[in-house]
Specification:
alpha+beta; Translation Initiation Factor IF3; Alpha-Beta Plaits; four-stranded antiparallel beta sheet; three-stranded antiparallel beta sheet; 4 helices; elongated
C-alpha cells in the first residue's frame, strides 16, 4: 500500500511539473522589441543581354523549319567567332513552329520563329557583333547585374543594414530605460531594383540600314536593397 501511494505521489508531482512547464512556455515574452532596418547601394549595371530573332511563314512546315534553321545557323556561326567566355556568351533562345489557320478552320500554312541571345560584360563586342548579323533582327535589349557584382554589392548593403539595425536596437532599448539588448531572432532579405533605359538604336525594318553598325546602348543603374528585421530582448 505504501509503495502504491509513493508511485501515485510521484506521478502527481510529474504531472504538476509538466503543467507548470507548459504554462511557463506559453507566457508572453516581456521587454521584447520588434524592429527593422535597411541598407541600399546603387551600382552601374554591368551585364548586357541582346536577343535577336526572325520569323518565317509558308505553306510547308518542313520548308519553314529549314529556313529558320539556316537563318539561325548563319547567325550562330558568326556570333561564335566573336564569343569570349565571360565577356560575350552566345546561346540559342526560343524556337517555335505552329500552324496557321484559315477562315474555314483548316490549316493553310505554317509560321515559326527562332532566337539568338548575346550576353556578357563586353558591351562594345556584343553590340558590334549584333550589328554585323544579317539573318536576324534586334528583338530586345536588357541590362542587369552580373552574379559577381550583385554578390559584392549585396554584401555592402547587408553590412549597412545590420549596422543600422544594431544602432536602432540600442536606441530603442535606451529610450525605454534599459542598458542594452540581446538578439532573439533576425531575418535578412535582399533584392535589387533598377531602371533599364530603352536602347538608343531600335530595330530597323531594312536590315541593310544598320549593316555592320554597332548598336548604341547605355546601361542604367540598379539599387541593391537589403532589409534586416527581427526582435531583441531589452535588458
Amino acid at each position: 500500500m505504501r509503495t502504491t501511494k509513493l508511485i501515485a505521489a510521484c506521478a502527481l508531482a510529474a504531472l504538476t511539473t509538466g503543467v507548470f512547464a507548459q504554462n511557463m512556455s506559453h507566457e508572453t515574452p516581456q521587454n521584447v522589441a520588434q524592429l527593422s532596418a535597411s541598407g541600399s547601394v546603387e551600382v552601374q549595371q554591368d551585364l548586357l543581354s541582346i536577343s535577336m530573332n526572325t520569323t518565317r511563314d509558308g505553306t510547308d512546315a518542313a520548308t519553314v523549319q529549314t529556313q529558320l534553321k539556316q537563318a539561325l545557323d548563319s547567325a550562330l556561326a558568326q556570333a561564335k567567332q566573336a564569343a569570349v567566355p565571360g565577356q560575350m556568351e552566345v546561346r540559342t533562345g526560343n524556337f517555335s513552329l505552329y500552324p496557321r489557320y484559315g477562315k474555314d478552320g483548316k490549316i493553310n500554312g505554317w509560321q515559326g520563329s527562332t532566337e539568338l541571345v548575346l550576353e556578357g560584360k563586353d558591351f562594345p563586342r556584343i553590340t558590334s557583333t549584333a550589328g554585323k548579323i544579317q539573318t536576324l533582327t534586334l528583338g530586345n535589349v536588357s541590362f542587369t547585374l552580373s552574379r559577381e557584382q550583385r554578390a559584392k554589392v549585396e554584401g555592402e548593403a547587408q553590412t549597412l543594414a545590420i549596422e543600422r539595425f544594431k544602432l536602432k536596437a540600442g536606441d530603442i532599448a535606451r529610450s525605454f530605460g534599459f542598458g542594452g539588448y540581446s538578439l532573439r531572432e533576425v531575418s535578412v532579405n535582399a533584392n535589387d531594383q533598377g531602371y533599364t533605359p530603352r536602347p538608343r538604336a531600335m530595330a530597323m525594318s531594312a536590315k541593310s540600314e544598320m549593316s555592320d553598325s554597332p548598336l548604341s546602348v547605355e546601361a542604367g543603374k540598379s539599387t541593391v536593397l537589403v532589409n534586416v528585421s527581427g526582435s531583441v530582448q531589452m535588458k
